[in-house]
């Protein structure tokens, strides 16, 4: 028997119920700042005009791009095992919706919606309409009213690739009863690393008894998509120059990396630096900063051509990272050179046989980066000088890059048993498959 619902959760539910009357105004302010979709605004309130597909429906939720992309291999495996099942995938950001559109069209039978805000009214409208048979949450986007409603309705729910950072855990300890109560209602929890698993189990038996073997979904996935026409056109502009790609940069990192590599890229026929910002909306600010530092910049969204005088190509578009990785001689993974980000997924580059250089802020991906260093599939730069020296050495010794790239590809493929294990854990939570004659 579960313990009584903590007063803090009851108070939260009451406050969010009151907030619901103000939610449309808050969402409209977010809409003005480009953080909501003007066409699909109602989905955040649990409303939609899209009908629920018939039959068994699995709902999967990942807050943004990384989480939602990481679950696509799971969906593909579920489609293979249970072709009768239909899928609903929710995210919370407009960027994720843009990037997912093409991927989901290729997979078929998957509906995308924006996740409802965590008011009792929006949650009820969402669940009344979609009535999922199983809900799967990815990583750590856990909303008390939403999860509580699933528990109250008896809808089975799982948490996959759970990532519990030390910062998150310390926050939990201030509301331990509430988080323990919330997590104890899950039917299955699979942590993405040993530290997250230990933190979950430390909450006691009500949570620990639902914790299954580890499964890091971000180690799965197919290589990022290519666009041969685009890549060949860019390659023709670049010519014989070597290419350095700085992927998923955040504020301060664009200038940090550019200044570190200034002596390498600021001369005729020297390597081209391609900067791919994590959020393309920052492009104009990035360009102004780089030009103030004396760099010549060409901007992709403006269809500007790369010339021999171009120092930096600002790749301010979505969904083309696979193209830029394939063009790269050297890859720098950003999100690790500034505080508060914790690094980004290096496996996207490694699946394309690209070893990476990274900084010291890695807590979101520490286990993967540790494996990279141990195997020799990447290089850590603790300062600008180290970053410059590493890039210089690699560009001068392509045989080192080739050897590390082979190791990177090998490391990216090491978790081949993860999907079968995830399926074995999820299968008991699904309704039985229809009989063959009924399915026909």
Automatic annotation (TrEMBL):
InterPro entries per record: Glycos_transf_N, Glycos_transf_N_sf, Kdotransferase
Keyword tags: Cell membrane, Lipopolysaccharide biosynthesis, Membrane, Transferase
Residue ranges the record marks as coiled coil: none
UniProt cross-references to Gene3D superfamilies, sorted A to Z: 3-Deoxy-D-manno-octulosonic-acid transferase, N-terminal domain, Glycogen Phosphorylase B
Metabolic or biological pathway: Bacterial outer membrane biogenesis; LPS core biosynthesis
Membrane is among the record's keywords: yes
Highest taxon listed in the record's lineage: Bacteria
Similarity remark: Belongs to the glycosyltransferase group 1 family.
Protein name per UniProt: 3-deoxy-D-manno-octulosonic acid transferase
């Amino acid at each position: 028997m579960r313990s009584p619902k903590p007063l803090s959760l009851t108070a939260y539910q009451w406050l969010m119920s009151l907030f619901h009357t103000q939610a449309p105004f808050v969402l409209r302010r977010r809409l003005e700042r480009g953080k909501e979709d003007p066409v699909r605004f109602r989905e955040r309130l649990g409303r939609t005009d899209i009908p629920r597909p018939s039959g068994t429906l699995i709902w999967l939720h990942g807050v943004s791009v990384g989480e939602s992309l990481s679950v696509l291999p799971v969906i593909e495996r579920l489609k293979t095992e249970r072709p009768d099942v239909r899928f609903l995938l929710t995210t919370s950001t407009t960027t994720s919706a843009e990037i997912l559109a093409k991927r989901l069209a290729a997979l078929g039978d998957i509906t995308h919606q924006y996740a409802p805000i965590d008011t009792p009214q929006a949650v009820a409208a969402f669940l009344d309409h979609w009535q999922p048979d199983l809900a799967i949450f990815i990583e750590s986007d856990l909303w008390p009213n939403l999860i509580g409603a699933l528990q109250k309705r008896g809808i089975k729910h799982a948490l996959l690739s759970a990532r519990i950072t030390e910062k998150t855990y310390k926050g939990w300890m201030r509301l331990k009863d509430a988080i323990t109560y919330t997590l104890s209602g899950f039917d299955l929890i699979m942590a993405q690393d040993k530290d997250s698993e230990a933190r979950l189990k430390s909450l006691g038996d009500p949570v620990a008894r639902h914790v299954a073997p580890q499964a890091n979904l971000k180690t799965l996935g197919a290589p990022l998509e290519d666009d041969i026409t685009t890549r060949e056109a860019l390659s023709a502009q670049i010519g014989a120059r070597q290419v350095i790609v700085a992927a998923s940069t955040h504020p301060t990192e664009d200038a940090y990396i550019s200044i570190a590599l200034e002596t390498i890229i600021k001369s005729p026929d020297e390597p081209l630096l391609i900067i791919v910002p994590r959020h393309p909306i920052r492009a104009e600010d990035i360009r102004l900063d780089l030009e103030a530092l004396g760099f010549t910049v060409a901007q992709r969204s403006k269809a500007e051509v790369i010339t021999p005088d171009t120092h930096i190509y600002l790749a301010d578009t979505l969904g083309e990272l696979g193209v830029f990785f394939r063009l790269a001689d050297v890859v720098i993974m950003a999100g690790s050179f500034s505080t508060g980000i914790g690094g980004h997924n290096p496996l996207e580059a490694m699946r394309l046989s690209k070893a990476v250089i990274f900084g010291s802020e890695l807590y979101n991906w520490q286990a993967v980066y540790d494996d990279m260093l141990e195997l020799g599939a990447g290089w850590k730069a603790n300062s600008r000088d180290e970053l410059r020296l590493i890039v210089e050495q690699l560009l001068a010794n392509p045989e080192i890059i080739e050897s590390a790239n082979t190791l990177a590809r090998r490391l990216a493929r090491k978790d081949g048993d993860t999907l079968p294990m995830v399926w074995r854990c999820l299968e008991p939570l699904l309704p039985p498959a229809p009989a063959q004659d009924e399915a026909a």
